[in-house]
UniProtKB/TrEMBL annotation:
EC number: 3.1.3.2
Cofactor(s) listed: Fe cation; Zn(2+)
Region of interest: Disordered: 24-44
Keywords: Glycoprotein, Hydrolase, Iron, Metal-binding, Signal, Zinc
Organism: Penstemon smallii
The name this protein goes by in its record: Purple acid phosphatase
Entry keyword Hydrolase: yes
Domain spans labelled Purple acid phosphatase N-terminal: 43-130
Superkingdom of the organism of origin: Eukaryota
Calcineurin-like phosphoesterase domain mapped to chain residues: 139-329
């Protein structure tokens, strides 16, 4: 009898799904297919990423292995006054052989400028716009993207309104070792990722280890999604940083070592020490598994990384931490060491891109006081930095064919907030920082 009562109580008080009265949550949607329909020498899966000051990396794949890694580009359509040569790679995964994966770094490029470009001398012309050199700038954020009809809905909403840079806190294709799904993902995102820089970090779905044969994992991810790790002094594509306009953005690796003795930790200390808040008043970090999470999915999975790294991010006055992994949206207050703290970063979980696993419907009840908004819906976020001190964050739920803004908040940079300027936390006060 007692167990039955407890079970009923548990159901009603602990795992009651969060349901907002005006909106019925949809089911997962099927995978979309994007077959390869260009010729073997033509580029497919074209995407771009920032690659050090005033440079962009152009990445694409050709079935024809002999295509040269050359990008021709210019400021007028069809008139390419510059060209650059890069490198290509390919990989095997069991019986799968990838096409030739090309990476070419181009530049110097002017800010806020549209460039037209052609990859490998054939196929369609693409174009992108470089980010501005000063505020305002707008980031779009969505994690756990996948390649379902919800993904296409999220991407359509993202593309319907202008922005400068896409930030993805892990879990891209959900190929889960089926390598052709990396190719279809590349084709699905090309219309977006070839026109604005896509800056990604890895999630658990990128790992793809196999005992003895592929013990280190990340074969597809590292080959296809090369990020500016060398440009930011990192030894691994699994963590890096970049500057854009007046923001310094740190892309951390939740699935590589992060303990105090690790390369990642040492690199991060060095990277944080080099941040000059008078040049980059805004400072963000992205991870995959959230450190703060009141959803029942993946509870506690980010805890060991939080214990290792939270203090140095706090000491550096990071403004915002974005995470993915949990397929829902949740915004916390500024927080440090599990308590609200006006000098800590605001944490946002945004693993709501639309993958095939569906939504994480169950939140802890009651909501912890540091959690300010939570909702299991697919959608995307927008961070618009107005100037050195003010930014606006908004979250847009996928409401079928339109996107509906459901959450928003104004943020003030900790770099300009006098009270938080000094380092107050004691442990690392005498460290390199
Ligand atoms: C190739 O595929 C894309 C995306 O599915 C589609 O938009 C385009 O019309 C196709 N082109 C041809 C020639 O079939
Ligand atoms: C920064 O933007 C905010 C919001 O628009 C505005 O209130 C504030 O005055 C701006 N600050 C400066 C220095 O322009
Ligand atoms: C959501 O979509 C429904 C049906 O498409 C529409 O009636 C409703 O107005 C939309 N809500 C918002 C907030 O856009
Ligand atoms: Fe994940």
């Amino acid at each position: 009898m007692e167990t039955i009562i407890l079970a009923i109580l548990f159901f009603f008080f602990i795992i009651t799904p969060h349901v907002s009265p005006e909106y019925t949550r949809p089911n997962p949607r099927p995978l979309v297919s994007r077959p390869h329909n260009r010729s073997d020498s033509e580029p497919q899966q074209v995407h771009i990423s920032l690659a050090g000051k005033d440079h962009m990396r152009v990445s694409w794949i050709t079935s024809d292995k002999k295509v040269q890694s050359v990008v021709e580009y210019g400021k007028a359509s069809g008139k390419y006054e510059a060209s650059a040569t890069g490198e290509s790679t390919s990989y095997h995964y069991f019986f799968y052989s990838s096409g030739e994966i090309h990476h070419v770094r181009i530049g110097p490029l002017e800010p806020s400028t549209t460039y037209y470009y052609k990859c490998g001398g054939s196929g369609p012309e693409f174009s992108f716009r470089t980010p501005p050199s000063a505020f305002p700038i707008e980031f779009v954020v969505a994690g756990d993207l996948g390649q379902t009809e919800w993904t296409t809905s999220t991407l359509a909403h993202i593309g319907a309104k202008d922005y400068d840079i896409f930030l993805l806190p892990g879990d891209l294709s959900y190929a889960d070792t089926q390598q052709p799904l990396w190719d279809s993902f590349g084709r699905l995102v090309e219309p977006y990722a070839s026109t604005r820089p896509w800056m990604v970090t890895e999630g658990n779905h990128e790992i793809e280890t196999f005992p003895i044969i592929y013990p280190h994992g990340f074969k597809a991810y590292n080959s296809r999604w090369q990020m500016p790790y060398q440009e930011s002094g990192s030894k691994s594509n699994l963590y890096y940083s970049f500057d854009v306009a007046g923001a310094h953005i740190i892309m951390l690796g939740s699935y590589t070592d992060f303990d105090v003795k690790s390369d990642q930790y040492k690199w991060l200390q060095h990277d944080l020490a080099s941040v000059d808040r008078s040049k980059t008043p805004w400072l963000f970090a992205l991870i995959h598994a959230p450190w703060y999470n009141s959803n029942l999915a993946h509870k506690g999975e980010g805890e060991s990384m939080r214990k290792a790294i939270e203090q140095i991010l706090y000491n550096a006055r990071v403004d915002l931490v974005f995470a993915g992994h949990v397929h829902a949206y949740e915004r916390f207050t500024r927080v440090y060491d599990n308590k609200g703290d006006q000098c800590g970063p605001m944490h946002v979980t945004i693993g709501d891109g639309g993958n095939r696993e569906g939504l994480a419907m169950m939140f802890e009840n009651p909501s912890p006081s540091i959690s300010l908004y939570r909702e299991p819906s697919f959608g995307h976020g927008r961070l618009r930095i107005l100037n050195n001190t003010h930014a606006h964050w908004s979250w847009h739920r996928n409401n079928d064919s339109n996107a509906a803004m459901a959450d928003e908040i104004w943020l003030e940079s900790l770099g300009s907030y006098a009270m938080c300027k000094g380092i107050t936390s004691s442990k690392f006060a005498n460290d390199e920082l």
